[in-house]
């Protein structure tokens, strides 16, 4: 587990040993820029950005990004590393990420345990990697190479998925094996656990308890769409629901109050609504610390 020192004052910003952040954060989305620029310094503890959306960006967007970067700690969560792709690892892209991290003094980078490209091009979705021993070896080697280039240990997020082609092992065993063989951290997404538990009919708490949570770097929490009684779609476009909040509480009992990111990618509500969710995270963190 990432070692953190926490202050009981939930509005204070605490530094983590590896991420450089603690507390509760928001994703930096261009559609939210006007609202984010109006935040008070203590409204959120950090911002998470996708480096692909900001590398090489100039003009007004770059100026606004730099304004926020001066006020809030940043961490990076990538979108296009495509760690499970059959295509060769894009090492030039990884080097551009390293330059971006160094230029903006960003200590930490995470990505998805999935793939989004093949030999033809970009697939514009996060595709599931087959849960097999061969895939563990393949993906872990690519993660180690990324860590070598970045000269940083990264975190990998287990993803929501809707089919499991070629599955030969349990999802949780696959995740744990990748973490162990690559020696990377875990980006724990409690909404993804809940969505997958509904869609594949398993107990989310059993899944949570089976994960190697000692490797948890930080947590994602988000909303989802109810397509049917037995089908949830991971959208990041709605408020977090009670069963996911409850799963976050259960995760904190295992990990401690690690940094937690509220994801909202579209259907942006007034900032006050997001800040109320931020306060729910902070309250849960404080309760986990004192409980």
Describe the model.
A hairpin with a 4-residue loop joins strand 5 (115-117) and strand 6 (122-127). With 291 residues, the chain is of the alpha/beta class. An eight-stranded parallel beta barrel has the order 1-2-3-4-7-8-9-12. The protein has a two-stranded antiparallel sheet with strand order 5-6. The chain has one domain: TIM Barrel (Alpha-Beta Barrel). 38% of the residues lie in helices and 17% in strands. Helix 4 runs parallel beside helix 5 (171-182) and helix 8 runs parallel beside helix 9. The longest helix is centred in the last third of the chain and has 20 residues, at 271-290.
Estimate what percentage of residues fall within beta strands: 15-25%
Total strands: the figure is 12
Which CATH first-tier class would you pick?
A: Alpha Beta
**Radius of gyration in whole Å, from Cα?**
18 Å
Helix content: 25-40%
With helices defined by DSSP (H or I, 4 residues minimum), what is the helix count? 9
Taking the alpha carbons of the first and last residues, their distance comes to 18 Å
Principal-axes geometry comes out as: globular
- Structural class from helices and strands? alpha/beta
Strand order of the largest sheet: 1-2-3-4-7-8-9-12
The residue ranges in which pLDDT falls below 50 over 5 or more consecutive positions are 1-16
Which architecture would the CATH scheme give at its second level? Alpha-Beta Barrel
Largest sheet: 8 strands, parallel, barrel
Instruction: Compute the average pLDDT.
Output: 90
The tally of domains stands at 1
As for the CATH topology, it is TIM Barrel
Assembly category: single chain
Q: List SSEs in N-to-C order.
A: EHEHEHEEEHEHEHHEEEHEH
CATH superfamily: Divalent-metal-dependent TIM barrel enzymes
């Amino acid at each position: 587990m990432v070692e953190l020192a926490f202050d009981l004052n939930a509005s204070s910003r605490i530094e983590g040993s590896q991420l450089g952040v603690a507390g509760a954060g928001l994703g930096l989305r261009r559609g939210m820029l006007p609202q984010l620029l109006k935040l008070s310094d203590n409204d959120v503890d950090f911002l998470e950005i996708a480096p692909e959306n900001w590398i090489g960006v100039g003009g007004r967007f770059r100026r606004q990004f730099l304004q926020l970067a001066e006020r809030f700690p940043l961490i990076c969560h990538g979108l296009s590393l495509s760690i499970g792709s059959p295509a060769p690892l894009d090492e030039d892209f990884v080097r551009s990420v390293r330059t971006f991290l160094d230029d903006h003094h960003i200590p930490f980078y995470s990505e998805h345990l999935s793939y989004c490209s093949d030999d033809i091009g970009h697939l514009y979705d996060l595709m599931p990697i087959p849960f097999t021993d061969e895939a563990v070896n393949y993906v872990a080697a690519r993660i180690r190479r990324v860590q070598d280039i970045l000269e940083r240990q990264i975190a990998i997020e287990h993803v929501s998925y809707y089919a499991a082609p070629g599955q030969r092992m349990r999802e949780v065993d696959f995740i744990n094996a990748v973490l162990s063989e690559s020696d990377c951290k875990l980006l724990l997404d409690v909404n993804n656990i809940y969505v997958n538990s509904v869609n594949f009919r398993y107990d989310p708490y059993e899944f949570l308890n089976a994960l190697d949570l000692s490797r948890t770097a930080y947590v994602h929490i988000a909303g989802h769409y109810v397509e049917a009684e037995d089908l949830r779609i991971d959208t990041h476009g709605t408020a977090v629901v009670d069963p996911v909040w409850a799963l976050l509480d259960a995760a904190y009992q295992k990990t401690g109050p690690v940094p937690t990111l509220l994801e909202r990618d579209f259907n942006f509500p007034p900032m006050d609504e997001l800040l109320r969710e931020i306060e729910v995270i902070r309250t849960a963190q404080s309760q986990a610390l004192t409980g």
